[in-house]
Amino acid sequence: MTWWRQRTERGVAPWVRTRLRTAPGAAVAFGVLVLVTAFLAAALPRALDAYETKGLRQEIASAPPAATSVELSAPQPGLEIAQSTREKVVRPPALAAVRRAALAGLPAPLRADTTESAYGVRTSKSLVGLNHWLPVIDAPPRFTLAAQSDLAAHSTVRGGRLPTAAGEVTAGTRKVEAAVTEATAQTLRLRVGSVIDVDGFGGAPLDVRITGIVEPRRPQGGYWSAQPVLRTPGVAADPSSRPPQFYWEAGLLLAPGAAPVLLGSQGQPELYWRFAPATGRLTARDVPALVARIASLEGGPELLRMREAAGSTAAVSTDLETVVGSYTTTRAAITPVVAVGTFGIGAVAAVVLVMAGGLIAVRRAAELALLRARGGSLRGIAGRLLAETAVVAVPAAAAGLLLAVLTVDEARLGPAVLGASAVALLACAVLPVRAVVAHRRPRANAERDDLAQARPGRRRTVAELTVLVLAVGSVVALRRRGASSTGDFLVSAAPVLVGLIAALVLVRLYPLPLRWAARPAARGRGVVGFLSLARAGRSSTVGVALPLLALLLALTTAAFGGSVLAGVSDARDRAALLATGADARIAGPGEATELPAGVARAVRKVAGVREVTAVRTERTAELASGGAGGKDGLTLIGVEPESYARLARQTGLGAFPADVLKPKGTGGVRTGSVRTGGVLNAVASPGLAERLGRAPRRITSPAGDVTVRIAAVRSRTPAAPGADFLLVDAAGLERSDPTTLLATGATLDGPALRAAVRGAGKGLTVTVRAEERAALSDAPLQAGAERIYTAAALAGAGYAVLALLLSLLQSAPERAALLARLRTMGLTPRQGRRLLSLDALPQALLAASGGMLAGWATVRLLAPGIDLERLALAAAAGRAPVVGASLRTDVWSLVLPAAGTVLLAWAVAVAQAWWAGRRTSITELRTGGMR
């Protein structure tokens, strides 16, 4: 036998290995808890980074390319330069050289997407087409001529061929070739071989022969949409003419080699290099640097570098900083609200980790007391406990970090490492610190720490008052300033502090109901009730305070997170309703044209449609002001009173009795007398009612002139949720044919409605409430924040369950030993089950009731300072304003976690009673070590 083996056999067994072999189950359970907590601590900052980055990229991608593209432009070369030199500057080789230099000079983090970028020469002022066969609105069409690069790579030829530059094109050339898109060819009646005479080239016009018709491959990409006129013709107005003269404006795509011909035009030709931003490597942390670099490009040192490549008169223009600024504003409004929720789940996780360490310390209290009594030093005991805990906690935390990195990508590693390290440090320190505090001096016997007899000391009172002051300060600050102060941890910790105060109050009040209930129970004949209350009163202060704190924080976090989600959902439902006014809205262009006959009948036949309400909307109606001949605009709505009143009542948008719109003296029956000049009763919005007053007023509109009297005032109405309106009986209008249909139904199918409407008429739009609601949830920034709150609510509920289980496990051996002793004294199995069930209920009931109360109080206290509008409705630009996207109490978020806590406590107690009944009293008393 070798010397080292002899030495090992004679030596003392290693402490860590021995402890792990003694209690492998506890070590594995503790490791799993650390792993899950470290995963959450590491995944949370990575998830925040990920959804913020995704939101930034989506914000840029969804913005118009004309706003996000960075364009370097320069005017045409000066006339003082030789003509040949001017033409050489605008030819493709010279433009490509500038493009390469500009690409190399783009400052990070701004990067270009070269596949959607373009460069070339164009006329900045459109030129008139002289051909008589071109379509004319009020004036002849005008054309923007552009010699843009890489046309072949971005289009598919549908007819003819791409244009070429025959020979050497100069400023004096008067015949060139061009291509147009399919939309341009269809609108302006062009075909392959058409020749357009373009004015503005000195004495003779420029003959542009159409050699090809192309289809854009990515029409919404930066190549085509940064200057949309090259892709799709539009209607423009000449502001210098009175009245304005409208005309078609389209684009002609010349060959790049034909660019010199534009130097001879009066269209103010300019050179341009347009760079579409590449977002694949852009992250949310790049935003400050990106905004600074854009500012430098537009008027700083980076602009000087660009001018070195493109000339001293070059300029850089972009609206990318506006797009990024909109994202930054939304993120700044959402981040503090998210921080309020994440603080709660972090506090709950920390308390549960402390509870887990406390459970181990309680189970080993006798062992540690024996070591201390036999001369063990606090430093030695703490070092051994730290070593055995670190062996489990550190690898578990590392595994949690690795799992978080693999699960959530495109995020920084640093914050995740800090979160997992904090979890590992807390897990390693709990057991040694708890042991050192509990065994500062050797004790022959453990002192009783009954909760019912405990008297709070001065230090505890001072600490509780300090926490109370902090809680009050955080709540007041949040209510006054709101949750918009990024980095204000006191404000973000408001729900945690409220839950902490609730726990401290309940711990102080806990003995009172026990004493009140124990007196009548002691006088009763049964022993079960008295024993359960007596045991609850003999629970240690730490054994009740920590579980109660964990449960209250978890329940408060779950209630707050659930209330935030409920408030967001309500706000989005309201915004979708205000966008449509019903479950579906069918209207013509601008709601200004009458619907074709048969549309209402076709809509009623669609499956799921319950009722269709026809209304006539006149947005150009006017009120004679009576002063200087001026008129005030308003929206006049003609409705059928009965059906529209039902719709308003069902949607909750300005419900009113149908009789309000009916003429007085008709007995509630509609007559045709109102068409002969009678006064119509009307329902008006508050602002319009204030303008009109109660006297009859004359209204002029395309539907006919009517005299109205305000009979009722409502803030909203389904037909015009976001405008000042005047609601009258359609029977009183000269023209009452509907312009809008409002349909209701629980399961409306948007495609089916569109198919039915398409068959009944052209140019009609269908807006479905469910689709509008879904669109509000698509934004990555809002969806990511909503997922964070969902995860916080679920994690809070999970930690509440874990805290309850740890609390029950801590006292399980003692309960089992007590039950075994009582069984030897004649306690029946039925009484034993009742005893254990009642034993677990006081703390569970206290935590459940306190959690509901704390959750309700947290929501009520913090609601004035929490604005959910950005979180819920950031994608609702252009919609009717929603009043009060605020926090509200969600009953289910209060009741379900609390009820689950009580049921779980009862189920665990019943299960323990059943398991204890299967073991003999002698076995339990032999293996049990509790007094």
What does this structure look like?
There is one protein chain. The model is unreliable at about 1-10, about 625-630, about 665-675, about 875-880 and about 925-930 (pLDDT under 50). The chain starts with a helix and ends with a helix. The chain is α+β, with helices and mostly antiparallel strands. It is built from 30 helices and 21 strands. Strand 14 (about 610-625) and strand 15 form a beta hairpin. Helix 11 runs parallel beside helix 26 (about 780-825) and helix 18 packs antiparallel against helix 19 (about 530-535). The strands form two sheets. Strands 1, 2, 3, 4, 5, 6, 7, 8, 9, 10, 11 and 12 form a twelve-stranded mixed β-sheet that branches. A six-stranded mixed barrel has the order 14-15-19-16-18-17.
Q: Brief overview, please?
A:
The chain is of the alpha+beta class and 931 residues long.
Record keyword descriptors for this entry:
single chain; 931 residues; alpha+beta; 12-stranded mixed sheet; 6-stranded mixed barrel; 21 strands; flat; disordered C terminus
Produce the secondary structure layout:
Blueprint: H1 3-10, H2 15-22, H3 24-62, H4 65-68, E1 70-75, H5 83-89, H6 92-105, E2 112-123, E3 127-128, E4 142-148, E5 155-160, E6 175-181, H7 182-187, E7 195-198, E8 206-216, H8 222-225, E9 234-238, E10 245-254, E11 269-277, H9 287-299, H10 301-310, E12 315-317, H11 320-363, H12 365-373, H13 378-407, H14 414-438, H15 458-481, H16 489-492, H17 494-509, H18 511-523, H19 528-537, H20 541-580, E13 584-587, H21 599-604, E14 611-624, E15 631-639, H22 641-651, E16 679-684, H23 686-692, E17 697-700, E18 706-713, E19 725-729, E20 740-744, H24 750-760, E21 765-768, H25 769-775, H26 780-824, H27 829-862, H28 869-873, H29 891-917, H30 921-927
Parallel strand pairs: 4-10, 6-8, 15-19, 16-18
Antiparallel strand pairs: 1-11, 1-12, 2-4, 2-11, 3-4, 5-8, 6-10, 7-8, 9-10, 13-20, 13-21, 14-15, 14-17, 14-20, 16-19, 17-18
